[in-house]
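Researcher: Next sequence.
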Amino acid sequence: AGTLGILIPPSIMMVVYGGLTGMKETSVGNLFAGAILPGLVLSGLYFLYIYVRCSINPKLGPPISREEASRWTPLQKVGLTLKSLIPPMALILAVMGTILAGVATPSEAAALGAFGALILAIFNRKFSMQVLIESSRATLSTTAMVMMLFIGGKFFSTVFLSMGGGDVVADVLVGSGMNRWLVLIIMMGIVFLMGMFIDWAAILLVTVPIFMPIAMELEFDPLWFSILLCVNLQTSFLTPPFGYALFYFKGVAPPEFTMGHIYRGIIPFVILQLIGLIILAVFPGLITWLPDLFFGR
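Model: Next structure:
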């Protein structure tokens, strides 16, 4: 479920994608709105799978002991939950709400989010000059990375397309007379295979300038296609042999858990990702409904 962070807004992947395409249909606001329901669909699939597995074998997800549960009264549990949940949810809603309501641009909403995070840090007595310096340094590093991605993507797309590379790929996929849904499956399959070995940002730089014109020529909704591509890229965090989430988990897992255990354990979730991708492809309204509602595309 942690890999959904790259998909559910506010997502750095959507920011990079929107900058690469430069299209109104795939603006950052539209991408944010379009990714909300797909994120919930994938979350629901995860929840359903875990619930079924734990119902069959309760040892996989044992409840907390009665002794530990009795440490707090029901009212205290509610208070602790709200204290942990409300501040971050308010921050997320402040950022996303202003974008979806059309009150602020993504850049303005980002500034609002930074200000809100500062207020929360002060309120929780976690603010210090050291925290401010480290946060500023991390922000500068991330911003520089994103800008370099934009520059690299522009260089690549300009050279590749000016040399006729896009026309060659389009002729192979579109000019062959294949059904457009088969072309979509081929493009998604290429992205899925690339995700096993390459970072999501590099995949965006390579595939978006090539695949987006093909999707437009095949009369696919550009926003719908973009979210499908991003959901596919989110799967790359789980797919062996180089899924980032797998190595993160190995770093915190007990020593007796090998990479083999992790590879085998991730298979059901990769299958769930693919099921979710199929659901979104079959029911495009799950992607387009919120952008149409908020922005009237």
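Model: The chain has one domain: 2-295. The mean pLDDT is 84.
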